[in-house]
């Protein structure tokens, strides 16, 4: 008896029972698969939330800096003893003497004790000297007057005020009982307050955490990305157009395509080694310059842009090409006037994604020397500079506690840049996407 006859002769209830059991097992498997997927998403979201909360918890404090109010007397005998108003004399004057004098005016008991004066000076950052110097050089008429102004506190005091440092020495505190008494007195008088940290946005790198800023790294990253965009976008799009529209399909083009796909998966440090050998050793380009950094990042982003551009070109329906050619357009006219404009939203999206990858790369920049300690903000792509990922690397390696806060703040800024660039890619895709 055949299976068909068995099924035909079997009772309807038995068949329904077997089908029901099979459906029950299949639905249970689907529920388990759905539960596994949901659990994976929940675990990923939890890890992401922990990571972001850790970064935000450590880094948000860096956007606020404590400053101290001082009444400073710009003593002419200290700043300009010959009354010449010579900018060189004013620039080399001992402005910290004015700061120390202002501090001992607040606490006269420290005036006759060298150790006490040293402990008192440790409450103020050397950035106070920069504030006074800039004020005098911009307006020499302040010499001989007394001004009330806010100056940055030292990094340990800033950490103490933010609650990141214990008061007790056995718990990691760095202040003596006498210094803690002075700090409490300053707080009671309202002479220490938190302000928005403008130093973080207006200064370059510094050995002192309270003076370290991101401006040099942001400008260096900007110059590097400009060089990367100017080189990688036209080269990537032109390569994609040639391979997709003009190149003959043979073993050579297949070899090129395979190598481009493989290059997209090559570790970025390999491109850094290539940039070190070619751009620095062979061509003798300036080390640690954004120009060289942009060239190295171009090597990183080119495969991504080429692949994304080819996908965008493939998405254009073939009847667009056939219609253009049928109306008498040449192949070049067909590509430039019809195919390329329709593929441009996808090309731009891929370019932004490639640039977002480039802005977060540090290995190629480390290999070409952009890891150097650079204080000045670069004014051109040929001057030495650093970049945001490299600045994060440098600050993370610093032993000072306040640099932990700066490191997390730099990560927040970098994540914001990446979020904006990815949001731009999503916006372009949604706005100009064509459905065929």
What does this entry look like structurally?
With 436 residues, the protein is mainly alpha-helical. It folds into three domains: 3-60; 63-207, no CATH class; 215-432, MetI-like (MetI-like fold). 66% of the residues lie in helices and 5% in strands. The chain is built from 19 helices and three strands. The protein has helices at residues 3-9, 12-59, 76-79, 87-91, 95-106, 114-121, 127-138, 155-161, 177-188, 199-202, 215-246, 251-263, 268-282, 290-315, 318-326, 331-359, 363-367, 388-396, 402-432; strands at 64-73, 146-152, 192-196. The chain has a three-stranded antiparallel sheet with strand order 2-1-3. Helix 16 packs antiparallel against helix 19 (402-432). The relative contact order is 0.10.
State the main characteristics.
mainly alpha, 19 helices, MetI-like fold, 3-stranded antiparallel beta sheet, 3 domains, extended, 436 residues
Topology overview:
Elements: H1 3-9, H2 12-59, E1 64-73, H3 76-79, H4 87-91, H5 95-106, H6 114-121, H7 127-138, E2 146-152, H8 155-161, H9 177-188, E3 192-196, H10 199-202, H11 215-246, H12 251-263, H13 268-282, H14 290-315, H15 318-326, H16 331-359, H17 363-367, H18 388-396, H19 402-432
Antiparallel strand pairs: 1-2, 1-3
